[in-house]
């Protein structure tokens, strides 16, 4: 199973040799087996990658993420097809049963708000509005308790007056972390034969990843907690700039150990199990589903396993 996250942050050429990804910099030459790579992030505008390397990583179902001049994820390369994708699978998705769609969305929103409430408790800022929103969720969240909770949640953990619409370092970090998780969820959807553009709640015609946007919701608070924890001057980071250290810490959250439906695992692996459960439920392959994502009360930052 692929497990390595490789970040290329300086001038480099990335090529393929003997089923190894070769990363040639001005001073060094690194060889990494294709089968080891889960995510390759090009965090530089001075990197070159060959089509042979792209195709090899694609066959290995790795995600390749490119960073723009502002330091944010701008695009990704991942497989666009799967042996599991066929006319029957697409017909299934287009005709997902309404009751199952609504049931799953209710569980997703419930899990998200539970984790938002947990983050508030971990940060010692409990919030009655979020707790009330959690208790008022109806089937399919028809009263949009998700939005009510969000309006109270972000000012609670980032300070009064904070807005997700502002251009600042914290929002940049949140968007960066969300994009990484979104990419992995999109990959899991694709390799299981489903279309990312057909969602269960999000339905924007200009969003090719509506389903990924739906399924990632329970994992957003993991990013929120990390950014909030490091959002003040600490011994680890000074969060007055969106620095490379902050980006590396966000990427390394893929190696965070958490609990999904009572079972411990790394976030990068739990995402696959979770997406698989959701799609099997929607495709009527199973009749019962739980969405219980429990995050630890400390989301720490460790050294990532491949930084060049």
Automatic annotation (TrEMBL):
UniProt xrefs under Pfam families: Cas_Cas1 (PF01867)
Gene3D superfamilies membership: CRISPR-associated endonuclease Cas1, C-terminal domain, CRISPR-associated endonuclease Cas1, N-terminal domain
Source taxon at top rank: Bacteria
Cofactor(s) needed by this chain: Mg(2+); Mn(2+)
GO biological process: defense response to virus; maintenance of CRISPR repeat elements
EC top class, as a word: hydrolase
Keywords: Antiviral defense, DNA-binding, Endonuclease, Hydrolase, Magnesium, Manganese, Metal-binding, Nuclease
Record has Lipid biosynthesis as a keyword: no
Documented EC number(s): 3.1.-.-
GO terms for MF: DNA binding; DNA endonuclease activity; hydrolase activity; metal ion binding
Annotated binding of Mn(2+), by residue: 146, 202, 217
Purpose: CRISPR (clustered regularly interspaced short palindromic repeat), is an adaptive immune system that provides protection against mobile genetic elements (viruses, transposable elements and conjugative plasmids). CRISPR clusters contain spacers, sequences complementary to antecedent mobile elements, and target invading nucleic acids. CRISPR clusters are transcribed and processed into CRISPR RNA (crRNA). Acts as a dsDNA endonuclease. Involved in the integration of spacer DNA into the CRISPR cassette.
Description of how the protein assembles with itself and partners: Homodimer, forms a heterotetramer with a Cas2 homodimer.
PANTHER family for this protein: CRISPR-ASSOCIATED ENDONUCLEASE CAS1 1 (PTHR34353:SF2)
Family that this chain belongs to: Belongs to the CRISPR-associated endonuclease Cas1 family.
Name of the featured protein: CRISPR-associated endonuclease Cas1
